Each structure stands twice: as C-alpha cells, then as structure tokens.
Amino acid sequence: MEDLNPSYFKEILVLGCGNILFGDDGFSFHVIEKLKQLLTEEERERVALLDAGTGAPQQVLSLIDETVKTRKIILVDTIDYKLKPGEIKILRKEDLPDPRHNSLDIHNWPLSSILKEVCERYNIELLVIGCQGKCVTKPDVYIGLSKEVEESVDKAVEIILKEIRKNSREG
C-alpha cells in the first residue's frame, strides 16, 4: 500500500508550537522561518519544518504511525521554567513531566502525554528546544518578541542545525 502520510513526515520533523499573535509565544514561528532560509537542498529532503501553531501539534502527532519515516522530532516552543528570559532549555523525552503524576507543566503542556506516547511507541527520538518567555500577552494580541527572546532565535536555530547535521553524519 502506498504511504498515505503527509509530506511533513520526513526523517526529522521540526515542529513549532506557539502563536505569533501573543508576543514571545511566537518564538517557534521565528525559528522555523529562519530554518527555512538556512537548510540546504539535501537537508530539505530529510527535514520537515512545520509551524503547527497552538492547536495543531496534537493533531500532527496523532497522524504518526508505524508507516512514517520520522526518527526524530525536534519540538520548538516557549516555556515557563522561571528561567532568565530568553534562556534556552533542552529537554529529552525522559525530561517531560509525567501528566499522570504531575499537575504542573512547562507551558500549559498538554502535549507531553501524546508526545511521550508517540515517541515511545514508534521509537522516535525527541528533543525539545524551549525558550523562556518574557512577555506572553495572551489573550491580548501583540506581534513581536521581547529583546531577550529575539536574541535567542539564532541560538535555537544553531542547536537545531547542529542536531540535523549530526544525524546526517551518523546516517
């Protein structure tokens, strides 16, 4: 049977979460846009860049099954770990809060349970690139990042490119 999964299920899926309308919550949008400019043609064959906004990440993850090519998900989001604004925190699957035992979350983190389930069931490596927000304006609309978060976009992009290129050397 022909693979019916969407084209964004490549070897590596960079999944942006957040909302550009709410200040620093748009961090992932800016990271994805910058990556679009920097990926080589060869990398575009292996890497899917998807800005899933706030509602779609769960839907995207629910489409993953045993037929997808994805071996790594790099999720990009604004976090709230009470760090210095703009500070990047890297999390792996085992670092995610367990929703069964922990009512606290990183950023209204309803993704952790489906993210863990999908990655464990289909043997997908997970890397979360979180940026401590300074000003998430929800429900008020404000388009733009705080200076601290804006300065972290390049750092996140550098981490992601290094991860993508590491996989290329290993593969």
TrEMBL record:
Organism of this sequence: Methanothermococcus okinawensis
GO biological process: protein processing
Keywords: Aspartyl protease, Hydrolase, Protease
InterPro entries xref list: Pept_A31_F420-red_hyd_d, Pept_HybD-like_dom_sf, Peptidase_A31
Annotated coiled-coil segments of the chain: none
Family from the record: Belongs to the peptidase A31 family.
Family annotation (Pfam families): HycI
Name of the protein described by the UniProt record: Coenzyme F420-reducing hydrogenase, FrhD protein
Recorded GO MF terms: aspartic-type endopeptidase activity; enzyme activator activity
